[in-house]
Amino acid sequence: MDTSGDLLIIVRGLVFKDDPTVPAELRGKNDEEDFRGLVSCLIESGRAVETQNIVTRPFPANEAGNSIIHAHVDLPNPCVAPIVMVLAGSED
Q1: How far is 74 from 85, CA to CA, in rounded Å?
Q2: CA contacts within 13 A on the Cβ side of 18
Q3: Strand runs labelled E in the chain
Q4: Domain range annotation of the chain
Q5: How many CB atoms lie within 10 A of CB 25?
Q6: From 33, 37, 60, 63, which residue has the greatest number of CB atoms within 10 Å?
Q7: Cα 76 from chain centroid (whole Å)
Q8: Average pLDDT for runs of 10 along the chain of length 92
């Protein structure tokens, strides 16, 4: 991500872990059709500091957990201590 809001996330292998707590049919697989990017910023709100989250539209993901998220996000000014995350496409 750059300061103008151009966000590029290359996702590789975001899958369920190979663990007995995961159903056998999901181990090593992604069950989401889409991923979304999220940028979380700290912003000033009067004299307080708050969190503002900006979420992208969904981008296709495959069963191997691969996806390319490329979007422009409108960042608040200032956007302090940004954190970039990958979200499931089906959940809010």
Answers
A1: 16
A2: 2
A3: 6-11, 34-45, 48-55, 59-60, 67-72, 80-88
A4: 6-88
A5: 8
A6: 37
A7: 18
A8: 88 97 97 97 93 96 98 93 94 70
